[in-house]
Amino acid sequence: MVTKKKKIKLKEGVSEPTLKRLPGYLTYLKRIQKLGHINVSAPTIASELELDPTQIVKDLTVTGIKGKPKVGYNIAELILTIEEYLGFNKKNEAFLVGAGKLGQAILSYHELQGFGINIITAFDIDPKKINTEYGKTVILHMDKLGDLAQRLGVSIGILTTPPNVAQKTAKAMVKSGIKAIWNLTPVKLKLPKGVIVQDTSMFANVAILLKKFHDLHDIKPD
Amino acid sequence: MVTKKKKIKLKEGVSEPTLKRLPGYLTYLKRIQKLGHINVSAPTIASELELDPTQIVKDLTVTGIKGKPKVGYNIAELILTIEEYLGFNKKNEAFLVGAGKLGQAILSYHELQGFGINIITAFDIDPKKINTEYGKTVILHMDKLGDLAQRLGVSIGILTTPPNVAQKTAKAMVKSGIKAIWNLTPVKLKLPKGVIVQDTSMFANVAILLKKFHDLHDIKPD
DNA sequence: TAGATTGTTAATCGATTAACAATC
DNA sequence: TAGATTGTTAATCGATTAACAATC
Q1: What is the pLDDT of residues A132-143, one digit of tens each?
Q2: Distance (Å, rounded) from C-alpha B118 to C-alpha B114?
Q3: Hey, which residues does B118 pair with through a beta bridge?
Q4: Which residue is nearest to nucleotide D19 (CA to C1')?
Q5: Inter-chain CB proximity A212 and B202 less than 8 Å
Q6: Which structural domain range is residue B76 located in?
Q7: B66 lies in the same domain as B148
Q8: Are residues A54 and A97 in the same domain?
Q9: Same domain, B196 and B117
Q10: A59 in the same domain as A38
Q11: With a 7 Å cutoff on the CB, does A69 touch strand D?
Q12: Model confidence over B174-197: pLDDT tens digits?
């Protein structure tokens, strides 16, 4: 046996910070590609994104892309390589659970398609929402989740319920066969080991913003 | 002169990771407070949130809270202390710019009030949205932003426009007197030094989720 | 008192940054 | 060729974790 099985860590030496930066590179690369650029160097990306050039090079290395000294990277190739590396070109079919405002925002956020994420169906328990369509996505009752997950083989779930039902809902999702949950609620979910949970508290960042703001502007007289 | 002025870094040794964890503590503390608990210890918080006990203690130390050995922290006091420390009890009046789906989600996300953030007015350029109300928030034309920011003394802005107009819009916000921007677009903004920008790319986290998911489930035959 | 927990200081771990050789 | 840039290895920096004394 040569490979040890760890919990749900990332494979061999790919750091989360690196992974978080890659989508930002994509956004930038697509923009300059549209502008007609063909190649781009790490120092250029770095100065645009206010990062360290070495960091860019290192980050890109993990994707397997090969650059040319003095020239940089081919933009088209780089985009494809990053997308491939991150799995954006895979069929990432997902269910969205909780069709409130945030859920609706996610449903209509076309940028998600750039991640290969394809929201098949949304679920809710509000009778007023059931069987309505949001954009091109139908909203079904939570009851149907288990059956549909099974039949369609969907195993990615996006959790956008109110906080007070988040835990309960997540549990039901897992029971229905969901294996990876993008958790947009501020609740820390307790789920069986083996289920991948990615917490995205939009509001953690607000704390930083406010702190910086007040530290800078509320200068107390000594 | 005893205090050196740095760029827009956080004051004396408060790390961003710590700041990002504090709102999570708040969410948890409020929940157990509602359950009737009076005190809570760092090890308890740690096991609930799957963090290291020492890390909790250290994080809480920065807020100035005092705990009792063997007992822990008084929950009510702890909540107030964290909120005070983060500036959540200040009058954090903000403008929201870009009243699309994501903007609307933010407008209707009541959790934001827990951060002391009070969205005064929303702005857009879509004639169909101008002068309509969303919840209790009026949507005005961007034209009015400068004047209102001045008159109301609002200096926090929430940027939720489409990516392609994000840079332009942010520039206009700064010109109108906005000093801190919560940037919910995936675009890296170029703004004058001194303006605080907090990027929140909801989607950076999706990259991690997908990567973990595919690493775990797409086992390639050797 | 005994023992769990706080709060601080030291050690470890990992990510970022620097240095530098290879190369186009 | 000269020089900018890649790609890798080493050094630094900062955050997390461990150790431990103080204390209720």
Answers
A1: 999 889 999 999
A2: 10
A3: B93
A4: B54
A5: no
A6: 16-86
A7: no
A8: no
A9: yes
A10: yes
A11: yes
A12: 999 999 999 999 999 999 999 999
